Amino acid sequence: MAAFRPYHGETIHLPDPVTRDPFLESIHRAQFKPVPNNFKKLDAADIAQVRANPNSSPWLPQQEKGTRPSCALPYELSVGGALTADRKAFAIHFAAGRELFGKRSAGGAFHVYVPGPSHTDGKGSTRAYAVSPR
């Protein structure tokens, strides 16, 4: 059951509690398992295959097959940006709309990552912004 799925009075089955001693024993036994060693070093032909068609390569992770039901979250977020007229700054406009979800619309949070030296740590900076639906 998803955390954001609406509740309609159905019975929710809770998971069984963890039995302490067997669980701790399984943690203890884990230290005796062998280190994974089933890795394959990719040769030039494997790398060429990945570069030519990444979606059919057996060496890259693949999306699991099938679908899972989910509930739509009531977001209608948008971001726009452009250089200012004097070309000395970049102006960003954040928005959360109400057109799709009406009164149920939710706001959102945005994080802006600015690369390069900053006034605090010399590595870059971040800024956090929030918008409410309008």
What fraction strand?
Answer: 15-25%
Which consecutive residue ranges, at least 5 long each, have pLDDT under 50? none
What's the number of extended β-strand segments? Answer: 4
> What is the mean predicted local confidence, pLDDT?
87
Q: Helix fraction? A: 10-25%
Order of helices and strands: HHEEEE
Counted by DSSP, the helix tally is: 2
Label this structure with key terms.
134 residues, alpha+beta, two-stranded antiparallel sheet, 4 strands, 15% helix
Q: Could you explain how this protein is built, in words?
A:
- The protein has helices at residues 20-30, 44-52, and strands at 77-83, 90-96, 108-115, 124-131.
- With 134 residues, the chain is an alpha+beta fold.
- A two-stranded antiparallel sheet has the order 1-2. The protein has a two-stranded antiparallel ribbon with strand order 3-4.
- The model has no long low-confidence stretch (mean pLDDT 87).
Sum this structure up briefly.
With 134 residues, this protein is of the alpha+beta class.
In terms of topology, how is this protein built?
Blueprint: H1 20-30, H2 44-52, E1 77-83, E2 90-96, E3 108-115, E4 124-131
Antiparallel strand pairs: 1-2, 3-4
